[in-house]
Every structure is written in C-alpha cells, then in structure tokens.
Automatic annotation (TrEMBL):
GO terms for cellular component: cytosol. This is Probable transcriptional regulatory protein Cyan10605_3320. Belongs to the TACO1 family. Residues 84-243 form the TACO1/YebC-like second and third domain. It comes from Cyanobacterium aponinum (strain PCC 10605).
Amino acid sequence: MAGHSKWANIKRQKARVDAKKGKTFTQLSRAIIVAARNGLPDPDGNFQLRTAIEKAKSAGIPNENIERAIAKGAGTYNDDDSILEEIRYEGYGIGGVAVLIEALTDNRNRTAADIRAAFSKNGGNLGETGCVSWMFEQKGVIVIEGELEEDSLLEVCLNADAQSYEIIDEEDYQGAEIFTSVETLEQVNSFFQNQGFNVKETELRWIPNNYIEINDPEQTKFLLRLMDALESLDDVQNVTANFDILD
C-alpha cells in the first residue's frame, strides 16, 4: 500500500539507520547453536548453520566464539551446563496487532517475565500459545541488494520456482526480497547466486496473512516501542507483527 510501511520494512530501515538496534553477539551466537543442534554441525552440509555463521561474521563475532557456539549446538562443548530451549511466544500489541516472538533461553521463567513486562509497559499483553500464530505463515526470504530490472527479476523468480517477490526502491536502498517455501529456500538461494545476484541475506521469516492498518500516532509510538523492547532482549531471536502504519 503506497504511503504505508509494514513491520518488516520498518525493521530493515531501522537497522540501517542505527546499528545498535542490530542483533547482539548473544543473539547471533544462539542462532548458530540452534542451527547446529537442528542439523549437521558442518556449515557445508547445513544451510541454516551456514547462514547463521555468515550473519555472525558480518557482525564481527570472532571465529573462536563461532566455533564455541557450533560445539554447544553439537553437544561437544563440555564447559557449559546450560540447556537452551527454543520457545515461541505470542501476544497482542495495542490496536489488536498480532505479535509472534521466537526465543532461545536457558531460563524460560526469566524470558517469559521479560517478554510479559515488554508487552504490559507498551499497551499490549502476552497471550496463550496459538492465539496469533494461525495468522502467520513461515517462508524463506532471500534479500537481494542492488538496482534491479523487474522483468528480469520476474523471469529468474519463475525459473527458480520462487513464490513471489517485492521490489525495494527507497532513497538510500535498492533491492528486492524473494519469498519461497521453507523447503525450497536453499535451492532458490543457490539459483539466484549462480545467476550473479548480490544475495545479502537469507532467512526463515514468519509472514502475516493479513495486516492491521495503524494510523494513530500514539498507537504507532507504543507499537514501535514494544518491538524495540522485545528485540533488545538477548533471549529473543526474532519478532514479527502484522501492523501496517502510515509512514
């Protein structure tokens, strides 16, 4: 919708403007742990792990920290007794906005308390499991940087069996986001790389099936503060919401 921004767009812009809003070392290291736990501890044979390592290196995490995180995920690191759990939290922001949170924690009571506090301080409330997840669908997302010709992009998307794309044409940024099924993400990513596209990032993302339009400045303020508060928590890996606000 012209003149509006969804949370994914706002998040991308905020990350470019303020690097401090990016993922912390703890969050990036935990993403490596999850990837190594869910597949092979070898990035050559584990696409999720390879992507997590690339993000960590881009953020300046030392190789020894990356290797330690891989070992923790593989269960071969003996100097750490903490057990990390993957938990998904769900809730509502002001205006009935659905919020989906993916966390990785060694203390679920602490994490739940922190997330509940973020909601309550910003006009929302933490809900029960399943209260909003039905409004989202998990997809693969490939972020491409650079000026693109839409006809050529469409042709490559069709040949790569991608589901859809969204052109990003902003004053200080040009590129596109390519959407795929979870199962075909690695295949489509390889296709785009082989075609010479500048693939900046590849990830799994929860995509809302519908959006709530927010036009009230006060509600906008509370929603953005809520998202910042949630993303600042070390235990939180990803946050997605279904609001669409006036720029």
